[in-house]
Amino acid sequence: MKKIEPGEKIRIKLRVNNTDHEVDVEPRKLLIHLLREDLGITGPKIGCDTSTCGACSVLLNGKLVKSCTVLAVQAQNAEVLTIEGIAEDELGKKIVNSFIQNFAFQCGYCTPGFVTLTYYVMKEGLPRNEEGIRDTLHGNLCRCGAYQNILAAVKNLGVGE
């Protein structure tokens, strides 16, 4: 294994929202910073840097991850889907519309993470009752306290049936 010198970068290839990218990154760079700083994808937010809030949630090869806990080099040859890509998908549009109709946001900072989480849950086909929805959503935080409206938005999608 080649030793990487300080300041040396590694070239990675990844696909983000159906667009291929080749980027030189420092081995310690987090995926959230690659997305926001290098690719200009600002939907996923930096909220806590501790994987607590979920504002940075993305799908990595179809699995929900908090991008503040993933090194960019771990996304080598991976498929990344952010809120921007989800919003282009029919299911994503349905979720976004439900959030709008149910006023499931106040400041909107947490919304990309909640929409991404909801999209993942619906893609996985996980039927949920209200308790199950609450359990699923508990991994994301809303500083404004819009939880009841977020819960309503998800329930109105038929996830809680």
Automatic annotation (TrEMBL):
What UniProt keywords apply to this chain's record, in alphabetical order?
A: 2Fe-2S, Iron, Iron-sulfur, Metal-binding, Oxidoreductase
* One GO molecular-function entry: 2 iron, 2 sulfur cluster binding
The answer to whether UniProt assigns keyword Iron-sulfur to this entry is: yes
Entry keyword Iron: yes
Classification via InterPro entries: 2Fe-2S-bd, 2Fe-2S-bd_dom_sf, 2Fe-2S_ferredoxin-like_sf, 2Fe-2S_ferredoxin-type, Beta-grasp_dom_sf, Diverse_Oxidoreductases
Q: Which residues form the 2Fe-2S ferredoxin-type domain?
A: 10-86
Q: What is the name of the protein in this document?
A: (2Fe-2S)-binding protein
Q: Which organism is it from?
A: Metallosphaera prunae
